[in-house]
Structures are given as C-alpha cells and as structure tokens.
Amino acid sequence: MDSYQSSQSDASVRPFADRREAGKEVASRLRKYAGRDDTVVLALPRGGVPVAYEIAEALDAPLDIFVVRKLGMPGHPEYAMGAIASGGIRVISDDVIRWYGISPAAIEAVAREELAELERREREYRRGRPLVDLRGRTAILVDDGLATGSTMRAAVQAVRTLGPAKVVVAVPVGAPSTCEEFQDITDDTVCARTPEPFSAVGLWYRDFSQTSDEEVRQLLEDHAQHVRARSADHE
Q1: pTM assigned to the model
Q2: Which residue of 60, 164, 172, 193 lies most exposed, with the fewest beta carbons within 10 A?
C-alpha cells in the first residue's frame, strides 16, 4: 500500500477558494492515474462531486457517483454501525452489533430510513443509469474532506465488494490521523492537506456552501458531454 500523500507548503496554510479549486489541487497529485482506461472517479455526493469533477476532467477518466448512507446506532446516530451504498450494498459492523446488542429489527428500521434518502439521491443524480462497472479497475473515491472518515470508510468497504483492482481515496483536506488510518484499508490515499490542528473540513474553504442537487446533475452531465466530445475527436 502506498503511503498517503500530503503537502504542507506555504500555499497550504490558506483555505481553498471552493471545491472546484480544491479538486484541481488534488488532481495534480493523481497524475499517475491520468489517461488510463482502467481509472474511474467516484464522487461521494453531494460535496464530493465538484471536487471529483475537476479530478475526472484532469485525468480524462469516467465520473460517477457513489452514494453512501451511514447507518447510525439507535440513540447515537453519529456512531456508525454500518452503511448502505449504491448497488444495493450493505456493510454491517458485526463487532458493534454484538457489543451493543443491537437487534435486527433496530438495524432494519435505521436501514429503511437511510435507504429512502439513498434511493432519492440515486433517482435525482443517476436518472436510471447503472453504476459504472468497477471490476478490475482503479476506483478513486473522492469527497471534499475527511474528518472522522466514517462515511468514506464505509464507501471503501462497499466499493471493495464490486471487484475493483485498486481502491484509492483522494481528498483536498483531512485530519492527519484519519488520513494515516486510510493507508491500512486503501491501495493509495491522497490527502492534499493535513493541517495540524484540524478542527473541521469547512474551515479550509472560503466557500463551503452546500452543493445542490441541480449542481450535482449539471456537473455529471457536463463531464459526460466532454467525454463524448473527446471520444468523437478520436474517431
């Protein structure tokens, strides 16, 4: 496994202008994946999509979304007992379930609630398109930052079940300890900035306004059009 990449140059002490600028910086650290037909960029919506758009454009790689919904423990929703993800994937932490004695009925109740939001996002963004085939490919999972990393950790587990050759996590900013932890579960981790002390992802963006459903759809369509145009140029 490659060690995670970070940089603490003078430029890294200032916040990113926005997620698009952040994506360009991350893309500059992923050049070894550029122009390869086995690379796929997967964005965690919604905030990961503008970041991933710039990465996919720079690498000339397909862009898709990977919707992940954390399954929070009953009474402690911030604590993950598992996750559901695109493609009908469910990942459950057996250790957490056993330790806290969480019943199957309680798990199902949380899963039903999160599934409703996952399916809504799938309909909004995918418009009937299937998830890109990841078998034997390098899947680059992208979000706008890593704090505790629980959602991204669930995404890595879920993507692994789809048979990629490699799983890469790439983010503009992350807590140093979280970025280090991802070395153990990915083939490559890129955290462009790992500020110390780290308090919140949003502090590292001048514009951290919420990404809308419309922006997600527009970026996915814009990238698909660019891919079609480049493909036509090569014919």
Answers
A1: 0.87
A2: 60
